[in-house]
Amino acid sequence: MSRKALIAANWKMYKTPAEAKAFIEAFLPLVAGHTRDEIAIFPSPVLLPTVIAAAKGSNVLIGAQNIHFAAEGAYTGETSIGQLKAVGGTHTLIGHSERRQYFAETDEIVNKKLHAALENGLIPVVCVGEQLADREAGKTADVLKTQIDGALAGITAEAAGPIVIAYEPVWAIGTGKTATPEIAEDTHKIIRAEVAKLLGPTVAANIRILYGGSVKPASASALLGQEDIDGALVGGASLKPDSFSQIVKY
Ligand code: PGA
């Protein structure tokens, strides 16, 4: 299987521009020449110009944690895709569970953002994941299928090439509770099968499905060694150059 892994840092609402610049300066030498995997960092919007300038010409890609689906308009507090691209951002997270939980982001909004990202040439990382109560009630597959069907509504196989999916069980995010590699692999298989149902076997075979939720240097290689795990979306352990570079080099 020729899927190139993507190891991505979700910095959430952390770091000042000075801290972000210091991170990049320390991090780039640690991953210099690393071409086995793609590396991406998702900082807060206010950090983007600093981080993009610091990472220019390197093997580190930069994206936003969120974008609005409208081209422009009276949407106080939001960032447009045009604004992101104008400062040099190439990727965006969509539908992170914290956006869904604290900012009322629905599958319908996720779908609109995904359409807008693809139409404008951004690489979207669409996040899905079940709550602990869903898993305990045996509803994981149903919840994920609903999220994936919602996110991918109206997307054609031809347009789907750039899409990356991140599976992030909500009970594993920021809790120190990583899904076991077996649980994660089983769930990634469910996601890939749903993508196959919607977009066909070729898209499903090529789409990258990242795992996220308390990934640490010590847990990365077992997770990333699974057949259907094609990378990681890392929060807490991505904030220090050392630990994130160790995950990159799992
Ligand atoms: P975590 O966050 O690694 O701190 O659990 C992952 C995420 O929310 O993307």
Briefly say what this structure is:
The protein has 250 residues and is α/β, with parallel strands linked by helices. Helix content is 43%, strand content 15%.
Element-level helix/strand string: EHEHEHEHHEHHEHHEHEH
Strand portion, in percent? 15-25%
Q: Could you tell me how far the N terminus lies from the C terminus, measured between alpha carbons in angstroms?
A: 18 Å
Oligomer: single chain
Q: Enumerate the strands of the largest sheet in spatial order, edge to edge or round the barrel.
A: 1-2-3-4-5-6-7-8
Provide mean pLDDT, rounded. 97
Structural class: alpha/beta
Share of residues in helices: 40-55%
Largest sheet: 8 strands, parallel, barrel
**Count of extended strands:** 8
The poorly predicted ranges are none
Using the alpha-carbon principal axes, give the shape.
Answer: globular
> Helix tally?
11
What hetero molecules are in the model?
2-phosphoglycolic acid
Describe the 3D structure.
The structure is a single chain. The protein is α/β, with parallel strands linked by helices. The chain has eleven helices and eight strands. An eight-stranded parallel beta barrel has the order 1-2-3-4-5-6-7-8, surrounded by six helices. The protein is globular. The two termini are 18 Å apart. 2-phosphoglycolic acid (PGA) binds at residues 10, 168, 173-174, 212-215, 233-237.
How does the SSE layout of this entry go?
Layout: E1 6-10, H1 17-31, E2 38-42, H2 48-55, E3 60-64, H3 81-86, E4 91-94, H4 97-102, H5 107-119, E5 123-128, H6 132-136, H7 140-152, E6 164-167, H8 181-199, H9 201-206, E7 208-212, H10 217-224, E8 231-234, H11 241-248
Parallel strand pairs: 1-2, 1-8, 2-3, 3-4, 4-5, 5-6, 6-7, 7-8
The structure holds 2-phosphoglycolic acid (PGA).
2-phosphoglycolic acid (PGA) binds next to strand 8.
